[in-house]
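thread: overnight batch results

M.L. [08:02]
morning all. the overnight job finished for the chain we discussed friday. pasting input first so we're all looking at the same thing
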Amino acid sequence: MSGAADPNVGTTPVRPGYGFDEAALAQWMEANVAGFSGAMAVEQFRGGQSNPTYKLVTPDKSYVLRRKPPGQLLKGAHAVEREARVLTGLARAEFPVAAVHGLCTDDSVIGTWFYVMDMVEGRIFWDATIPGVSDVERAAIFDAMNATMAQLHSVDYEATGLGDYGRPGNYFERQIGRWSKQYVEDADAGRDPYMDRLIEWLPANIPADDDATAITHGDFRLDNMIFAPDAPQVLAVLDWELSTLGHPGADFAYHAMMYRMPPNIVAGLRGADVAALGIPSEADYVAAYCARVGRKAMPAYDFYVAFNFFRLAAIFHGIKGRVIRGTASSAQAKERVKILPELTALAWEQAQKAGA
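M.L. [08:03]
and the structure it wrote out:
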């Protein structure tokens, strides 16, 4: 299907160092997954660099397994148990996620903790301009994304058992402090004049609604959603590794950052003729979300966007430090270092739109 990637595509034989006792897994599946039966073939998805992800194929259906990576891990990192928990809670609220069948915290089964969920069949779009579909469907896909994000932020996290899933309140204060500290302390990566301005401007301009709290995804993007094969309908939102209780405005602005993001940094729409593509304008997209969550407007929206550009720049700055120290040598890491000056300039540009 033009313009889309089926989630079935993108698997390989299990990579060296990532294998496990498949017979032990099958035994666990028989005891914990209702309806599991028959021979099972294991494939590995090309993605899932942080938490290795596998496709489990049986004669009747396929499943997805997410596990902590093998080897020594930092405390609290690769928390697959958090992913399983948020997926289970959101399913109770009828939010579109894959159904979780079980979480295993016994290292003796496959060597690390893991969980198993349904394999959701559908389309994944990797390009924000969504080539290969009609303008009418493209508009409907954007509206479906918008509605799904509004639905997420409207979930009663207490009622779904997620009241202690994060720390409510003071979101921007905590996040700005965290990323500023990481930036300043990475002497190897050096300083950047735009970042220096941002670490002064951002904490002095935190909006009054810093206590707003909702379940936040943390990486809500077009390519983290599975759409129905034949309709502009979100069947499942993927990749909940960064989810927490956070600020809904920040989560929405991270998603809407695509409007101001050049495609050479992270898949974005900057420079695209969105009207000709049938894509709503940024202002209309923000207004649609506001209407869905019951607010008249989002006056601090430009601040939210500036914060997200700053956060992304801080992440890229950290990658620069690791490249210099020789602990991140991939081609992708080096490309991100090259575009860091462009990204920090963009981040300051957003702050100026917010009144800096």
